[in-house]
Amino acid sequence: MAIEINKDLITQIAALVATQSDVAIQELLAEEHFADVAEILDEVNFDEATYIIKLLDSEKTSDILMELDEDVREKILKNLSVKEIAEEIDELDSDDAADIIAELPEERQEKVISEIEDEEFKADIQELLAYDEDSAGGLMAKEMVMVNENWTVTRCVKEMRTQAEEVTRVHSIYVVNDEGQLIGRLSLKDLLMAPARGNISKIVRPKVDFVNVNLDAEEVAKVMQKYDLEAIPVVDDNQVLVGRITIDDIVDVIKEEAEKDYQLAAGISQDVEADDSIKELVKARLPWLILGLFGGLGAVFIMEGFEDALSSYKHLFFFTPLIAAMAGNVGVQSSAIIVQGLANDIVKGSLLNRLLKEVGLSLINGIVLGLIILAVSPLIGLSFQFGLTIALSMLCVIIVAALVGTFVPIVLDKRGIDPAIATGPFITTSNDIFGIYLFFIIAKMMLGGF
Amino acid sequence: MAIEINKDLITQIAALVATQSDVAIQELLAEEHFADVAEILDEVNFDEATYIIKLLDSEKTSDILMELDEDVREKILKNLSVKEIAEEIDELDSDDAADIIAELPEERQEKVISEIEDEEFKADIQELLAYDEDSAGGLMAKEMVMVNENWTVTRCVKEMRTQAEEVTRVHSIYVVNDEGQLIGRLSLKDLLMAPARGNISKIVRPKVDFVNVNLDAEEVAKVMQKYDLEAIPVVDDNQVLVGRITIDDIVDVIKEEAEKDYQLAAGISQDVEADDSIKELVKARLPWLILGLFGGLGAVFIMEGFEDALSSYKHLFFFTPLIAAMAGNVGVQSSAIIVQGLANDIVKGSLLNRLLKEVGLSLINGIVLGLIILAVSPLIGLSFQFGLTIALSMLCVIIVAALVGTFVPIVLDKRGIDPAIATGPFITTSNDIFGIYLFFIIAKMMLGGF
């Protein structure tokens, strides 16, 4: 289906660029989908990519630009003049055009916008740029097929031939009244089956899903996934139709959200990829490691406080990594399930029920694990009393860790903070310190003498 | 847009069911989207859900059944006769019908299939059931609009009126030759704009994306996301058109895959939700906890081996949780980035380059963290030599943990095992043990005397 992108191809293209074999390059890439060309440009070095972009037609390169890796696109745009950028943008849909402009440094944004010749397009872009990028307004495009309820079917089809030239994908035809307010929809199927002289208002389907322009992007994704929609109209507070969001943009939102949550859970604080520079990777990873380090130093401090136990109960200090690991694992498991539940809106039921469930769950897990400890203790030469102490304090640590792992995301979510921050190193570090402290306190109560 | 699903509504519905107020229930739910009704049924208790399903029309309940939470659906289906199930299935698209039958116990599957009256539909379902559920064949539906290249546009529109009744969403019209092989596509827009007596073969677009029926579901998702497709035809090894996959099914695949990876990273071994029973949650979480427990016991064993250090260097034992935490965090960060990179096909470049990058990254992170240790040691009353020992061994542990975290997923991936298993408790536990061992070995070399 598509050209296979491998080392040989990249070498071949690099050679063609080096010899400036323009015709050969164009032939090679002419039949390729823009997403494949973008993948190739992500792989060749930066100068070669710029060369190829300048060589190909604007009509193709604008789509290619959209598909490029963000960092590559940023570099290429730096090397284009504002006039060249405006030419590329002219070929795009309004949502993609607005996204590209938004990526530019502020001084360049104004200059590029002023270079856009189509006044209507310029106005559309400026309107879109005003919206929050994580809202429906930030996702939507102005291109869609919109008809007036008072038209006949014939006039509707005629208008559509004009409008549909602009629109890449026609799903529903949106029907508005004289005030521009969304009042219903039609499918192409409906139009095909309808009598030519019929009136739109007779065949319009009044039941139409829509979202408000200020709705959060993740909420839009949930609506579209729940109702299996492929496009959804966007209205303002007066129900006036202002734009449309298509499923391909939502698929990207879903993927990005999933990757962000996964990285937060692993203690990576910004959007990085395996092929990023070392500097980028350090910036993303070091902060969480420093947090973990201070957690570990906290544990050192706690253990210094209990060092009297070393003489009689040195094994307590051998068990600290085990206790910390259990506290961490249990905490991460609890928080991961809650974070996913919050994302899917399935955390219902009272907080008290959830508390009881986690305690019950932790009791069962803790008892099983405690029994394993008791079974293993004699093999390490520990007394039954000591084994029991370890098992019981581990049980308490597990219950507390599960409760913390459950409630921290819920509390964060209620305060409007992304609960996914509560998974990963944040939870493991705090549970480590607290778990070790609790462990020694209980051991002291049960064994005494220090 | 939709009814708001809250506690009051659930109580209201429960009351209506208790008093068997059938008309009231039907009125309340008549205007609701099936996805919303399914959400309501997920919330009411099981008997009430069954009552409502039996009350509503098959045409609506079949869609509702598809949207229900898996566990709720399983229970409801248990309470329906094979004839009743066949009636529900009759209203569904072939891919959904096949999915529901596949969820039933094997003995029931045969009986339900035999109750299906439409022979063609029965044959379709049986064909779909033969495919692997994680392949394109397992995702596709047989319903689509297919026209022959030799027809006129008029005949095409006529045939479509028949075929399109079955098809919920018409995106592309697929064009086949006399052997049934996919040779191109048309959009409804093309048909609208074409002269009535024209021939399909004159307006067909030969360039059409497609996937092979045996392609892995995740690969299908990547193709559809890359090329912004909303539907893709599926062909067999002879290029014969056998089905179609729509974007809404792919959105579900993407979401499920993301959730599965996230849960694996948190050490949860099967698909659970926050509202599952305690028994389900224990089964999913305990195995990883036991793994972590044995890791911790391994650490105990290692430390027993070095217990001679207790007299002179007791602080080594206070630092073990810190070392374990660093090894764990670094390992998880490395593996998370690699796992995401593998999923997005962006882990390119030689393995050697990757090795060097991780070592460089770990050196920088490790040196910064080591300097913090050196700065803090005097405050805890530790000698510079001791602080340096801790810092250096932590640096080695970090480098090793990063390499392990990088290479384990890559090796798993090359052997066809889901690399996501390598994140979470698996990595943290093995890095804990190895890290603590390495720590003591290096401390012994630098400090001596034990």
From TrEMBL, chains A, B:
- Provide the protein's localization: Cell membrane; Membrane
Q: How would you describe this protein's topology in the membrane? A: Multi-pass membrane protein
Is rRNA-binding among the key words of this record? no
Against Pfam families, the record matches this protein to: CBS, MgtE, MgtE_N
| Keywords, sorted A to Z | CBS domain, Cell membrane, Magnesium, Membrane, Metal-binding, Transmembrane, Transmembrane helix, Transport
Main subcellular localisation = membrane
Domain CBS stretches: 140-203, 204-260
Keyword Protease annotated: no
TM region(s), chain numbering: 286-303, 315-339, 359-380, 386-412, 424-447
Q: Which family does it belong to?
A: Belongs to the SLC41A transporter family.
Tell me, what does this protein do in biology? Acts as a magnesium transporter.
**NCBIfam families per the record?**
mgtE (TIGR00400)
**Protein name in the entry:** Magnesium transporter MgtE
